[in-house]
Design goal:
Elements (H helix, E strand, L loop, with lengths): L1 H11 L2 H19 L2 H11 L6 H22 L1 H6 L22 H6 L1 H4 L8 E4 L9 E4 L1 H16 L9 E5 L6 H5 L4 E4 L4 E5 L8 H11 L3 E5 H14 L9 E5 L5 H11 L3 E2 L1 E2 L8 E3 L5 E3 L4 E5 L4 E6 L10 E9 L14 E5 L6 E3 L5 E3 H5 L9 E10 L2 E8 L6 H15 L4 E6 L14 E3 L1 H5 L1
Length: 459
């Protein structure tokens, strides 16, 4: 309730005060993320070259054993789950299969038992619902700082410093209708030198305003949703727009980066696009090196690729909410064979990161609302919604099918979903929430968060 009130007040503020409040919040995050432990981790990871494969596998196994032992000791969920398993029988990484798989539904139902610390003791992260299920996980402060250090070290090796100016395109609700009428689609975080752009309002009519501001801001780094950056890049290419800056690098997140996205974005901004994989839950990292290869980073966790290329993840930086053989719902395609990359790393090469494609629904004014925006609709109500699916048959109507935990779901959750949808689609769209026992899979056996039947009509 208090957060909702603060959000309403924030939205009523003029842009200058929004920037001030955003920067205050940025200062809070800065204190959470950067301290002596972060500096120690950054110094360590920025010097690693990963040239010795056997050494890397040995280190991975040692980290794994320590992690599962601590999870069993500190988490009542894992203590119960491993009650009849002798962890001493695990002698190599191949023995990980002695441990049971943890599904997303199992994690959701038992999240309080899984956690090893109170929310007040750590850093809370809400996952988006790209698989239809959202979670509220808690990181220990040290784990959170180590993850930040790892990402910053990855970028440092590409010549990027954390203090460089950033343009960020992610699904944050940062502008009001008054801002939109004035053509203001962004706010600024002075602490991070970060201009945050709303991705809810990107369409042909508004993109010139975005580009004008980008030309004035001249970011060194662009990061955020694939769909948002792609739409702006496509507009630049289609309309021959001149840019007065050249970013040093572009980092895409949250959505699958397909070859045509990469081609269009790099042509528009004349900058290299770097792919990466992690998750709000805290999955191990996959990062792109200077040679252009994607590496499964063995020192951050274990990724098990199943026969259908779906993955189970065990992450070494999730002591607050341990993830062990967690069925995360994503997929990767490992390169066949094993060889040292041109960059010198022996960490396994990933041919392609799967996951959900960049799908979308339409708003009545013609804007495309992407999967990542819709995934965040249930971000604030992570435990009560088991599954959610958005179906659009008409331009001004969207049906929202939800399977809920009746013990936890309340009318307030209903209202939150509707409010979030209004932000994304506007008041001209009608929304109907339909409770169901379960949501059917597609013929392929996969689950779809989005079903856009409008696209079929347009063919």
């Amino acid at each position: 309730m208090i957060l909702e009130m603060l959000k309403k007040i924030y939205m009523m503020l003029p842009p200058s005060l929004k920037n001030f409040i955003t920067s205050l919040y940025g200062f809070k995050l800065y204190k959470e993320r950067y301290n002596e432990y972060y500096n120690m981790c950054f110094e360590h990871y920025s010097k690693q070259n990963y040239e010795n494969y056997e050494k890397e596998k040995e280190l991975q196994f040692k980290k794994f054993i320590l992690f599962i032992q601590k999870a069993k000791k500190d988490s009542s969920f894992y203590n119960d789950l491993y009650a009849n398993i002798n962890l001493n029988l695990i002698k190599s990484m191949e023995d990980i299969k002695l441990l049971p798989i943890v599904t997303k539904e199992s994690l959701r139902k038992n999240i309080d038992k899984v956690r090893t610390i109170k929310k007040s003791e750590g850093v809370v992260s809400f996952t988006g619902g790209t698989t239809g299920t959202s979670l509220e996980v808690v990181f220990t402060k040290q784990d959170f700082q180590e993850r930040m250090a790892y990402l910053d070290a990855f970028k440092y090796k590409l010549g990027i410093n954390s203090g460089d100016k950033k343009a960020t395109f992610s699904g944050r609700e940062i502008v009001s209708s008054k801002d939109v009428k004035k053509g203001v689609y962004w706010c600024y975080n002075y602490i991070y030198k970060q201009r945050m752009y709303s991705t809810f309002h990107i369409k042909d009519e508004t993109i010139p305003s975005y580009l004008s501001d980008l030309n004035n801001f001249k970011p060194v780094i662009i990061n955020g949703f694939v769909s948002a950056i792609y739409l702006i890049a496509k507009y630049i290419n289609d309309n021959g727009v001149a840019l007065f800056f050249t970013p040093q690098a572009i980092f895409t997140t949250s959505e699958a980066l397909l070859p045509h996205h990469k081609c269009v974005i790099e042509k528009a901004f004349k900058a290299k696009v770097y792919n990466q994989y992690a998750s709000a839950e805290g999955a191990p990292f996959i990062t792109e090196c200077v040679a252009g290869s994607l590496h499964y980073n063995l020192d951050t966790g274990v990724i098990e690729v199943q026969d259908d290329n779906s993955i189970l993840v065990t992450s070494f930086t999730t002591h607050g909410t341990p993830l062990i053989r967690y069925q995360i719902g994503d997929s990767i395609y490992l390169s066949e064979g094993r060889s040292k990359c041109k960059c010198g790393s022996t960490h396994p090469i990933v041919d392609r990161i799967g996951g959900r494609s960049v799908d979308f629904l339409y708003s009545t004014d013609g804007a495309k609302v992407s999967l990542s925006h819709l995934a965040d609709v249930i971000k604030g109500i992570p435990s009560s919604v088991k599954k959610i699916q958005f179906v659009q048959d008409n331009i001004n109507e969207i049906n929202i099918f939800i399977s809920v935990d009746e013990k936890l779901y309340t009318p307030k959750d209903n209202n939150k979903i509707i409010k979030s949808m209004l932000v994304r689609f506007g008041e001209k769209t009608k929304f109907e929430i339909i409770k169901v026992d379960s949501i059917a899979l597609e013929k392929s056996g996969k689950y779809s968060l989005i079903k856009n039947n409008m696209k079929k009509k347009h063919k």
